[in-house]
Amino acid sequence: MNRKVRLAIVMIIFLVALGLRIYGSGVPFIDDSVDVVLLARDISLKPGRIFLPVYGTYHGPFEPYLTRVSSVLFGDTPFGWRFIHVILGAAMIFPVYALTKEGFGPLSGIFAAVLIALNEIYIFLSKNMLEDITYLFFAALVLYFFFKAVKTEKAGWMFAAAVAGALGFLAKETILFIVPGLFLYLLLTSRGRRWFSKPALYLSLALFFFISSPFLYWTITHQFVAFKRNALGYLRLFNFSAHTFDLFLGYYFPKIPGNIESDLGWEYMGPVIGLVFLMGAFYTLRYVFKADDEKSELARFLHFCFWAVVGISLFIFQGMPRHFAVSILPAASLASLPLAQMWQWRRAAKAVVMGACAVMLLFSCYATHKFKEYSLLSSATHLGWLGGEGWADCTTISQGLIEIARQEGATLAVFSGSVEEVGAFFGAYSGIPIITVKPELLWHPYPPGCEKRIIVFLDPSLRVKDFRKWAADNGYEVSGPVAREFHSRRKFRGSDETFDFEVKILLMDKTETASKPDLKGLFVIVMGRPL
C-alpha cells in the first residue's frame, strides 16, 4: 500500500467520522454546555468592554474561547456554537493514526483511525459542546508528540507535547489522567530514563506551568467554588469503581438499566467495539516484555498510559465513566495491532474484521441518531414551579420565557436557584444577561444598559418583598407581579407536543435619577445567603 493510497483511506475515514458527528449536531443545547455559551458570549475586545477571562465555567478558560470562535465562524445557533467541536472530534483520527503508525505500521494506524471514527463515546462528546472532546484532541496530540520525542530524542517534540498538554489542561483537568502513565514510561524504560538527564524535560514542565499559570493563579486566589465542587468532590481513595471498564463493557452490564445516562454513546460504547478494545489491550500485553523493537516500545508506552487511567479510576478518582474517556486513545492504538494482523491472514479473517467494522458502523449510526432524543431528555426541568406536572426539556420551556421577556422589552432576567438550568438555557439562546445561583456568573461583566428593565421569573422560592426592597434601595419602579401565559412546542419521538403554562413575573424599571445598581444584591436574593 503506497503513501497516496494510505492518505486517501485516512481522508475517507475522516469524512465518515465527520459525517457521523455532523448528523444531528444542530439539535438544541445540552446540559452544562449552556454555561459555556453564557461565558463565551461575554468575551469581548471592544474598547471599554474588554473581557478576556482566565477562567471557565467548571473547568479552564479554553472552552469558552473555542466556542466563541465557533459561533463567529459558523453562526449564533446551536450548530454554530458546537461545530468546531465536531471538527476536532473527527480530526482526532490524524494524531491517533500518526502515533500508531510510528510503532505498529500504517495498516494498524488505519484501523486505529477507524476505531476512533466509529467510537460512540467520541461521537457523542463531539456533539455535546463540552470540554471533553477538546481536551481529548489535545491528549491525542500529547501522546503522539511525547512518543515521538522519546523515539527521536529531539527536544522540539517534548516542547510540543507540553504546549498540547497545557491547552488540554486549560480545557479540562482530566487530561492529567495520562500523566502517571507518561511518568512511569520514562521511569521504567531504558529509552525513557535518558530524558531525566535532559534539560528539555524540565523546560517542558516549566512551559506547561507557564501556559497554565493564569488559570491556576486565578483559581487559587478566587477559591473557585465550581472547581472545588466538581473536581475535588470526585476524589474517592480506594473506591474500586473501575469506571474505565464501564466505558468498554457497560453495554453488557449497565449501571442503571433504562436510565438515560446509561444509554449507548454517553456512558458506554457499543457491544462489539468495546470488546475489540479490551481484547486488543490484553492481547498486546505479550509485546510489553519482548525485545526492544519499535512495536514493543509503542506497546509499552500505550499500556503504561492505559493502565494508569484504569488505576486512577480504581484507587483515586471515582467520577463517571465518561471522565475516563482518555483511556480510549491508547486502547484504540493497542486494538489496531491484532486487527491489522488478522487482516493479513486468510480471507476468512478479513471477513471477520470487515464484519466487525460493519457492526461497529451500524451501532455508531444508531448512537448518532439517538442524539436528538438524548439532547431533550438530558436537559429536563420539573414543571411544578409552573403549576404543572412531570418534566419538560429546558429548551422548550426557555423558548416560551424568551418570548415573554422580549415582549416586555427586558434587558436582564432573574431566575431562582430552583430553575437555574432554565435560566441558563434562557441566557444561552436569547443573549439576554441573566442572574441566578450559578457562582461563575458573579465574575461575568454585565454590559452597560442591561440593568434598564429587569424581569424576574417568580417561583415559590422567591419573595416579592425582597425585590421590592432592592428596587427601593437602587432607584427602581416595580410593577407586578402579573401572570403571563406562554406556549411552547416540541417534536419528541415522532409526536408534536404542546406546553401551555402561566408564569408570574415581576418587572423593575430603572428611574432616570437612579445611579448604578448593585446587581450583586440580586445574587444575594436568589442565592438566599450572603456572597
Quick overview:
The chain has 531 residues and is α/β, with parallel strands linked by helices. The protein has 2 domains: 3-377, no CATH class; 381-527, no CATH class. 58% of the residues lie in helices and 9% in strands.
Walkthrough of the structure:
The chain has 531 residues and is an alpha/beta fold. The protein folds into two domains: 3-377, no CATH class; 381-527, no CATH class. Helices cover 58% and strands 9% of the residues. The chain has helices at 3-22, 33-42, 62-74, 78-91, 93-104, 106-117, 120-128, 132-152, 155-171, 179-188, 190-193, 199-222, 225-230, 243-249, 271-283, 285-288, 294-315, 328-343, 347-377, 394-407, 420-430, 464-474, 519-527; strands spanning 380-382, 391-393, 412-414, 434-435, 453-457, 476-492, 495-510. A five-stranded mixed β-sheet has the order 4-3-5-7-6. It has a two-stranded antiparallel sheet with strand order 1-2. α15 packs across α18 and α20 packs across α21. The longest helix has 31 residues, at 347-377. It is globular, with a radius of gyration of 25 Å. Mean pLDDT is 86; it is low at 258-262.
Task: Point out poorly predicted stretches.
Answer: 258-262
Through-space gap between termini: 65 Å
Q: Find the count of extended strands (DSSP E, 2+ residues).
A: 7
CA-atom Rg in angstroms? 25 Å
Features:
531 residues; five-stranded mixed β-sheet; alpha/beta; two-stranded antiparallel ribbon; globular
Chart the SSEs and their pairings.
Elements: H1 3-22, H2 33-42, H3 62-74, H4 78-91, H5 93-104, H6 106-117, H7 120-128, H8 132-152, H9 155-171, H10 179-188, H11 190-193, H12 199-222, H13 225-230, H14 243-249, H15 271-283, H16 285-288, H17 294-315, H18 328-343, H19 347-377, E1 380-382, E2 391-393, H20 394-407, E3 412-414, H21 420-430, E4 434-435, E5 453-457, H22 464-474, E6 476-492, E7 495-510, H23 519-527
Parallel strand pairs: 3-4, 3-5
Antiparallel strand pairs: 1-2, 5-7, 6-7
Helix pairs in contact: 1-4, 1-6, 1-7, 2-3, 2-21, 3-4, 4-7, 4-8, 5-6, 5-8, 5-17, 5-18, 6-18, 7-19, 8-9, 9-12, 10-17, 15-18, 17-18, 20-21
